[in-house]
């Protein structure tokens, strides 16, 4: 029944557009009553993104589960992984929806509002964690946008493969880009454990220091970074 | 006439919602004919974002005007500045629209699609410029999202001030966050010329090097950065 409703809805959205399709049209094509529709979906858009509210709730719960000591950027990336896992759990539905949203402008607009709510949720968490920084709100917004964009990049890559590629590899690579940029520690150690191309990631040392620091402090910093066993390159 | 149409449209969007308002409703409230509407606006959404197509065209033209030698991140930031300037040229209209989009969900959704097109345009340019990098497409998407997010942060700050704050200061600060993160050079020199808080910006040296580079090369890099007159801090 649920699948028949989804199939009917997708057919009509493609044919008439999202806004022009009513719930009556959908139940009529699926050959069921209106009440059956509402047993499965609270509203028309929930046929397309049935797990959106659950995904947001899970993300919020995960974000709030932090001790307050965790690296906020890494924690935000892990929250985004939950969403990608939700898509990956239903590959054929996700791929079908992806093809539909490319073709139906009204659905594309709805998808943007779905994405925006995830971004807003991440930004809210990051604003709390960055509250002590002068650039806190700006940093929170930009990092949240970067996490969402990296997530969407990984998701699209996986969807374009028809759900065939390894989504864990895709999301690891995308999130490593964000944590390498803003995470509290260079991410070499953890990434190697995640199985994500450690050669490429380990190849760079980044030193950030006050430019008024004496030169010996910077050299010490470099030596200490190079000596950190988490980052030693295994040739 | 144009202003009367905008006023009527804004009143109806607020009262009935964006989707529920027709062009007939708007012209009837404004007391003009349909033809007058289309003389000013190609479609209903253009009453709210009349300069969107022009803004996109300007951004695209600016992006394409690069020599191919320019710092791509900085060039993308400068393209985003054009959009903010377009808003800032009409402060009272921009502030009025901002208040409206907060209240009318259909308009908020339309605004997201406007923002998405800017982001898409920036990402397209950056993909071209990052084509030689293994992480090119991912980097392009994330940087484009960061530029748009920083732009929107500056825009919102200015709009919330009722268009009273100094938008140039807001956008300089937001874009400096992005160029400091990914720009080709630390941005101290240029930013000081822009009048953007040089104390904060000049305070950091970032060294990025192959971790297999000999220590003396890194020290040389630091010395050379510290000796760069563009970056010398004036106490």
From TrEMBL, chains A, B:
InterPro entries: DNA-bd_HTH_TetR-type_CS, Homeodomain-like_sf, HTH-type_TetR-like_transc_reg, HTH_TetR, MftR_C
Gene3D superfamilies in the cross-refs: Homeodomain-like (1.10.10.60), Tetracycline Repressor, domain 2 (1.10.357.10)
SUPFAM superfamilies per UniProt: Homeodomain-like
Domain HTH tetR-type: 1-59
Domain of life: Bacteria
Transmembrane domains' residue ranges: none
UniProt keyword terms in alphabetical order: DNA-binding
Keyword Protein biosynthesis: no
Keyword DNA-binding: yes
Region (Disordered): 182-202
DNA-binding region: 22-41
Protein name as annotated: TetR/AcrR family transcriptional regulator
Lineage of source species: Bacteria, Bacillati, Actinomycetota, Actinomycetes, Kitasatosporales
């Amino acid at each position: 029944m649920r699948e028949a409703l989804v199939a009917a809805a997708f057919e009509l959205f493609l044919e008439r557009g999202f806004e022009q399709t009513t719930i009556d049209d959908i139940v009529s094509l699926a050959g069921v009553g209106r009440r059956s529709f509402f047993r499965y979906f609270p509203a028309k858009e929930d046929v397309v993104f049935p797990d959106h509210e659950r995904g947001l709730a899970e993300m919020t719960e995960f974000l709030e589960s932090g001790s307050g000591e965790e690296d906020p950027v890494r924690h935000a990336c892990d929250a985004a992984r939950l969403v990608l896992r939700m898509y990956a759990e239903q590959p054929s539905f996700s791929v079908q929806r992806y093809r539909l949203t490319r073709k139906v402008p009204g659905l594309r607009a709805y998808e943007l509002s779905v994405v925006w709510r995830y971004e807003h949720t991440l930004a809210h968490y990051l604003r709390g964690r960055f509250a002590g920084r002068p650039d806190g709100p700006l940093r929170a917004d930009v990092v949240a946008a970067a996490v969402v964009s990296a997530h969407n990049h990984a998701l699209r890559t996986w969807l374009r493969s028809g759900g065939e590629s390894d989504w864990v590899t895709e999301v690891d690579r995308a999130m490593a880009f964000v944590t390498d940029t803003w995470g509290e520690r260079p991410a070499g150690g953890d990434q190697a454990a995640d199985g994500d191309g450690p050669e490429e990631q380990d190849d760079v040392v980044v030193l950030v220091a006050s430019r008024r620091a004496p030169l010996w402090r910077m050299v010490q910093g470099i030596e200490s970074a190079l000596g950190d066993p988490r980052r030693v390159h295994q040739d």
